[in-house]
Amino acid sequence: MHPILSTLIKRIGLGIVSLFFVSLIIFSSIQLLPGDFVEAQLGQARTEETVAAFRKELGLDKPFYIRYVNWVGAAVQGDLGSTFSGRNASYANQPQQSTARTVTSLLKPRLYNTFFLAAMTAIIAVPLSLLLGITAALYRNTFYDRAVNASALTTISMPEFFVAYILIILLASIYQFFPSLSNVTSSTPFLERVYLSVLPALTLTLVTVAHMMRMTRAAIINLLSSPYIEMAELKGLSRSKVIMKHALPNAWAPISNIIAFNLAYLIVGVVVVEVVFVYPGVGQLMVDSVIKRDIPVVQGCALVFALTYILLNLLADVISIITNPRLLYPK
Amino acid sequence: MSKNRDNSILLEMKNISIEGYSDEAWHPIIKGVDLQIHRGEVLGLIGESGAGKSTLGLAAMGFVRAGCRFTGGSVLFGDQDLTKMNENEKRELWGTKFSYVAQSAAAAFNPAHRLINQTIEASVSHGISKTETLEKEAIKLYEEMQLPNPTEIGDRYPHQVSGGQLQRTMTAMAMSSKPDLIIFDEPTTALDVTTQVNVLATIRNIVKEHNTAAIYITHDLAVVAQMADRIQVLRYGNTIEESETNKMLKTPREDYTKSLWAVRSIKKKENKNKEKILSIKNIDASYGSGPKVLQNVSIEVPKGGTVAIVGESGSGKSTTARVVTGLLPPDKGEIIFQGQKLTPNLSDRSKEDLRKIQMIYQSPDTSMNPRHTVRDIIGRPLEFYHNMKGKAYTNRVIDLLKMIELDETFIDRLPSELSGGQKQRICIARALAAEPDLIICDEVTSALDQIVQEGILKLLLRLQKELSITYIFITHDIATVKAISDEVVVMHNGLVVEQGMKSEIFSPPHPDYTKLLLSSVPEMDPNWLTKILSSKN
Amino acid sequence: MSKVDNQYSAKDEVASVFVKRTFLQRTFITLKKAPFTAWLGMTIIVFYLFVALFAPLIAPYGEAEIFKTPYAPWDEVHIFGTDRLGRDILSRLIYGARNTMGIAILTTLLAFLIGGGLGLLSAILRGWVDQFLARFVDVLMAIPSLIFALMLLSIFGSTALNLIIIIAVLDSTRVFRLSRAVGMNVAVMEYVEAAKLRGEKIGWIMGREILPNILPPLVAEFGLRFCYVFLMIASLSFLGVGIQPPTADWGSMVRETGELIQYAQYDITAALTPILPAAAIGILTIGVNFVVDWFLYLTSGLKDEQK
């Protein structure tokens, strides 16, 4: 079998195994709940029956592996369980029926919102970072490079909420170009959606570009010190030819890794930004649920984020594999 | 030699000075060197590492590496001074009139492009002629370089061909634009001796055929004797001596030049010793579940003498050392040391067993902890094996320093404050501190300059006489084997080809591999290469 | 030939370093040559440490002392005003240095203990220990840290102790990766093999052979990890799931005074009130980053010269 195929299969297999273990961790975290959790959640509505019913619904009476398999089976069908919130009242009234909403119904609209925001950011951030990173590496140690480096370093040292607040003060309070709250709904028309998302996207862009630009610069500098680059110079090739024909073809692997890494970072940054701008995405949902200790929702959100992260890393590795000449053309 | 052809001066370097930037200051690398090359002539540039040969070679093209600069002198090519030209003007000449062949072909080729494209790239980029024409000429060059499948090899990628083939491809790449001058920077240093012969032959032929001038940089005198019409000796950035090859070999003027021949003058008288201190019998070994690296290896080591294990890379000589020391337990076979069976695994051996067998490594830079002082390095075995402390400890360290021809001023130095030879001596002292019966020397002189090698070998021979230590000396260098051994073991691909007394091994009849090995080692005779080639045909 | 023998002497060989200086002398020389950014960073760090250590002596009022007017404007009594509950902002800023920095340092130390120790062990032992640990860490790192932390905090609750342990364990994965990588680079060196051949035990090899040689990258990583942990704790507190009130902490202070942002067009000082703790976080991180950058430049430069 061609080495590329076997390497790809191995890598994808590894991704699936990672997903399995991650889902296991996310699922089993519910086992770590302190014993009195059920009672605490039900609060004043707790009685022998309600506690028992809740326990049964949580499945805490069945063995571990059966619960896990049920959970996974349900998950792939899109059923991630139901929220904890709103149970107290419903249990008190009708212990047999729960009117708690399903996790999936909560997630669906927010999923779209979060990905919209991430896409909006990525479209600008990725090309901008590559441009800045590559030019900074080429004009190394010039004033331009030092200025770019200094600003990047400053930006990554700031917490995201700081960047967000500064932008709000400047662009939403003093000069009121944009709103400070992004209350997007499923019925918001496209252009208005973009307008409402400008500030959060801008915050994310600034932070992501800072990270990505630094990493790109380091990768290109590393590439430019390879011996075959010196050889190309000694053959009298012009600077641009050396970069285009010799450096770039070998840059796919490190750059795709950097992009994947930062897109994954973007997923995380989205959480804080959504909270600051009250943007109805998965991040904001997760934070709210953590505060309320609504475990099924937390699990669902965590699963979504982890899945995206694993897929992005998988994509980066796949690109590295298929651009590696040693694998493309084996001995 | 080129009698009927154009002999005019092609390139003249006058009083060239170059500085390099390190440790926050500029230091001189080349200090006012003159150099001349005539058309069609091969100039050999030799010297030890750090002499500045590579820097000078690149400077002949007008190129300085990052962190270096010209500080004086001129490089005249025709009526142009390369030191006064800007980058664009120089680029016109690079890859057209000047070509460079690097030491490591594997590193110099871009892994992402095919060989043929890289071979003709410079010519295409400078618009010398059409791509199809250049490709045809490249294939012809591949033929001249005796590459296998010349019509198809260009379609391969660098990682798909062997080291020797890659080196020849790089030479073809350098020839593609029909340059006036090629600079060969240690082109065969990284190759095995048996591969080297072919590469040397093809380089010499092609340079003669096309009347190309060349600067041939190397630290190996025997190699340069084959390749060069004139030789220039460099040391610490200065020219020591320069003359025609034959003249320099027969009548060298300077003491330094004479000393470069030194190693080849030591020849130990062989002793036959009946008693064996170590026998390894029928050893098979492999790394993990991989193929066997040693097959049915049996070696006998005489007490108080030296056994040289000689072979090229991949022969299994270092692996044999790892088996003896217990780092690699063998799959089959046994090790008998001083009449007792030795447990195959290092972790099962007693302190006494470990003490009696010591090892010295090839690279003194990596065999000593850069954070430990000389006192710690030599003293640890004293503390560990003999429980020495306090004054007795310090005195013994000083004794050992004297034994290796250094003194107590070295006791608090760090490895970074020592020269290569001094470091290797410290490693020897470290081995002696344990008071072993057997020392395994794994290529201990291979990373050192010629003069330093002589000192180390003399030291080892003297210590052997005084302390009755047995040596297993692993090397790939035939001259060293002749210098230091009583018995010789020749290995190839994990097998023992032959073993016996030194005199037996070096006189015919030889098994095929030994013949190949011995005949591939360049000798000081400028006609050696020609003789070898004609004997092969 | 005999002429050459007498002239050659091992003692006179020229080595690369000439002058021997003490550790203090070398440190002093290096400090003098440090760039402006490094000095700025060091000054910032020293200043913050000073504030954190002497907080009770410097702060005008108590950490949780409540005054009459919530959201009081900036004046001579309360230099930066008061927060939602009427607590003095300046005092809480000063105490916040102690709390936020303290928790971050403790967390980083714990992460290094776990990650560094396991990483080194992995590098030396190799074999199945290494494989198991490396794969385990890979799986842990497949979940983004913030998400994982949020999940674990929702289960265990947000106490300071839980915060320290959870973040330390999550961050130790990065330290593990680094110490394993640099440890392996050193573990294949011949002087480590020479120690093994001597019969040295694993404790000696780890502590005396490998550790002294991997200190530079580990020290740099400590600085970087501190920044990361520091920012994460601040973010978690800002989200409301980190350090809980009434403990003064910069992240939660931003959250508590966040409403004032919208008044920027009327009273800029009001809007700056939540910015102050956020800026305090950012400035320390910048300072540490500057120093770490310079340190990395120094140690990588050294490596090249030894070649």
How would you describe this protein?
The complex is a heterotrimer of chains A (331), B (537) and C (307). Chain A has 331 residues and is mainly α. Chain A is built from 15 helices and no strands. The longest helix of chain A has 36 residues, at 103-138. The radius of gyration of chain A is 25 Å and the shape is flat. Chain B is built from 21 helices and 20 strands. In chain B, the strands form 4 sheets. A 6-stranded mixed sheet of chain B has the order 6-7-8-3-9-10, with helices on both faces. A 6-stranded mixed sheet of chain B has the order 16-17-18-13-19-20, with helices on both faces. With 307 residues, chain C is mostly helical. Helices cover 73% and strands 0% of the residues of chain C. Chain C contains 12 helices and no strands. Chain C has helices spanning 2-7, 23-32, 36-53, 55-58, 89-125, 127-140, 145-156, 160-187, 190-198, 202-239, 250-257, 268-306. Chain C is globular. The interface between B and C is large, with 46 and 30 residues.
In short:
Chain A has 331 residues and is an all-alpha fold. Helices cover 75% and strands 0% of the residues of chain A.
Note the beta-strand portion of chain A: under 5%
Helix/sheet category of chain A: mainly alpha
Low-confidence stretches of chain A: 88-99
What percentage of residues of chain A falls in helices of 4 or more residues? over 70%
Largest sheet of chain A: none
**Pair with the biggest interface:** A-C, 53 and 48 residues
- The topology string of helices and strands of chain A comes to HHHHHHHHHHHHHHH
Number of helices of chain A: 15
Q: What does the main sheet of chain C amount to?
A: none
Assembly of the depicted chains: heterotrimer
User: Which bin fits the share of residues in helices of chain C?
Assistant: over 70%
**H/E series of chain C, N to C?**
HHHHHHHHHHHH
Percent strand of chain C equals: under 5%
What's the alpha carbon Rg of chain A, rounded to whole Å?
A: 25 Å
Overall number of strands of chain A: 0
Distance N to C terminus of chain C:
33 Å
**What is the arithmetic mean of pLDDT of chain A?**
81
Number of helical elements of chain C: 12
